[in-house]
Amino acid sequence: MAAAPSAIPTAAAAWRETLPRRGRMGMLALILTESAFFSIFVVAYIFYLGKSLTGPFPREVLSPPILNTICLLSSSVTIVFSIWALRAGAIRTFAIWWFITFALGLEFLTGTALEWRRLIYHEGLTIRTNLFGTTYYSLVGLHALHVTVGLLLILVVMVLTMCGYMNERHVERTDVLSWYWHFVDAVWVVVFLTVYVIGR
Amino acid sequence: MAGSIDHEIALGAADDLQALPIVGKLHEWVVTVDHKRLGIMYIGGGLFFFLIAGLQAATIRLQLAVPDAGIVPPQVFNRLLTMHGTAMVFLVGMPILTGFFNYLVPLMIGARDLAFPRLNAFGFWLWFFGAFLLYFSYIAGDGLYGAGSAPDVGWFAYAPLTELPFSRGNSTDYWILSILLTSVGSTATAINIITSAFCMRCEGMTLSKMPVLVWLAVVVAFMMLVALPPLSAAQAMLLLDRLLGAHFFDTQAGGSAILWQHFFWIFGHPEVYILVIPAFAFASEIIPVFSRKVIFGYAVMVAASCAIAFISLGVWAHHMFAVGMTPAGNSFFAASTMLVGLPTGIKIFNWLGTIWGGKLRFKVPMLFSLGFLFQFLVAGLTGIMLAVAPFDWQLTDTYFVVAHFHYVLIGAIVFMIFAAIYYWFPKATGRMLNETLGKWHFWLFVIGFHLTFDTLHFAGLRGMPRRIYTYQPGRGLETLNLIASIGALVQGVAVLIFVINVLRSLRSDEPAGNDPWDAWTLEWSTTSPPPEYNFAAPPVVRSRRPLWDLKHPEDPDWRYE
Prior knowledge:
The complex is a heterodimer of chains A (200) and B (561). Chain A is elongated. In chain A, 76% of the residues lie in helices and 0% in strands. Chain A is built from seven helices and no strands. In chain A, helix 6 runs antiparallel to helix 7 (171-198). Chain A has helices spanning 10-18, 22-47, 58-61, 66-87, 91-121, 131-162, 171-198. Chain A is an all-alpha fold. Chain A binds chain B through residues 11-12, 15, 19-22, 25-26, 29-30, 32-34, 36-37, 39-41, 44, 47-48, 51-53, 127-128, 130-131, 133-135, 137-138, and chain B through 115-116, 187, 190-192, 194-195, 198-201, 203-204, 221-222, 224-230, 232-234, 236-237, 240, 244-248, 253-256, 259, 263, 266, 538, 540.
């Protein structure tokens, strides 16, 4: 019997079509467990609100990073555009939107770095200063770590695109990667509300 | 040119190395991504640590056999009980149970491997090195400052007592890192099992035709995804406190002394169910086969397991009644804890319903399963007692609690692990375990278990505090403790018989055959041991018992389902 794809009985192939795709299921499971992980840090942040014995306090030193937030949230939109382009086979359009996504993510990370620099050098707030510093750096840092991982993954796809390896057959995997990016953005909404709205 | 010759020489040397039988074999097992090999490595590793942590328990029982025995000093006793508890949960229970799921889930759903084989290997090696780190602390716990020591903070490691000022040296850091690694490994396995069960089932196997074991594996995997992160998060916080000077659990800086307890038990209680639901899973496969009946109440069984998983996420503070919560908090957690009894009771009735009127075969797996049924019932009942907050205030931190949870962990889980090993050993190795030795193992283990843990209930009722290296003479505790220690010895002998049985069977030449128990699930349709690809042709199923349909074409199950 030839090992061509047509040798697979059609009934089995039809059955397989009814099952969910592995990549999506795995990513959903990962997102579930990551959400549980984040929620504990959010709980710790809220639990310790106003319990710091010494300053600086959130109201004195924090200002909402509006530009950062706009950049990160819009990167969720641009990554959707790039997936649409990939699905349509428009590799060039895909590459452009993908690069914009990367740039927006990088802007967010840079913004966080500058904010931390200001807090550390000008406000004297470190992870050991008080409970606010402890919970702030760990929660925002945990999110920034996830943004970094997401950016590295996006970078890998970008390099593969530049080397000419990307085509519409990879839309499934790229889409799964974009789910992770959407998750990172959704977490930022929670972190933003916790740290910069409720927490101030 | 010279470069390529060097290359050839290097290749040749590697081939020579491969030619050594041991190295070749080792290499095969190290690089494998086969779910069956990884499953066996999990179970083998778990059994190895079972022996070590069991010896540590034996030393504890020896120390407590008589008051002031002086076998080990108090500090060593604290390390022993910490390492025993931590190892039994993270290096024995978790790997053995995930090992079984690793091995069985793809075979039972008619797949050739798990959904992500390399992720599976990654999870195993994380576990392996995590386990190594925990025991490495024996030589490196104090870093470069002096003689090493293992962690002595208890498996619960209550902060702030685990903060740097109170727990010097690096032993606690090793404890944290070890558990972080093994937890991440378990999370990887959980993702894999969920994805496999939903995406890799063979043709015809709808969700309602999955074997109960696979269903419960999915339930356990979901629990791992939700319950392990609180532990990992708390560990990360403690590590930040210890290494970077953060203040999560630092009461001097306004931190809370009980936040750790909440985080730990949000993980800790579901963890009990993560360990016991696999035992339910084994029982739900073994009891029907040895009763020659279909499982009673398949759908209810699955629903009850989901209910247990869900409720168990909201019961954690029953470990904290003595902390001093509000009456409303105490009442809530007492009520939710008792609520778990409902679906658990349903499951026990279902197993009884399966046995009822069956044509019972008292082989060793069935004997262990029956022991499990009885002991798990008793463990559940003492659990209901401890859920009553005032009763718990009286008995918290006594040996009554120790006896209660060992009834679950040994009486239910270890018994079902042994049942599962006797049941699936022929599939994994192609050799049967000896029945006579198995019966000796069972009866000695039952007797030893009851000698130890029945008596410890009464020691606890008389007020014997746990986690203490000795007890006062003249309080009516001497006889009880001596009996308990003798029981530990009997259990040790039983486990020794088990080890001998395994080693003997591995050397025997008598093949077990593909289906020695006349069972009904897909793993028994392939050879023993199965080939690397499991099934030459992907199976097609029409009912929950595909092999029954195959063996009884005149009366197949799918007519009734």
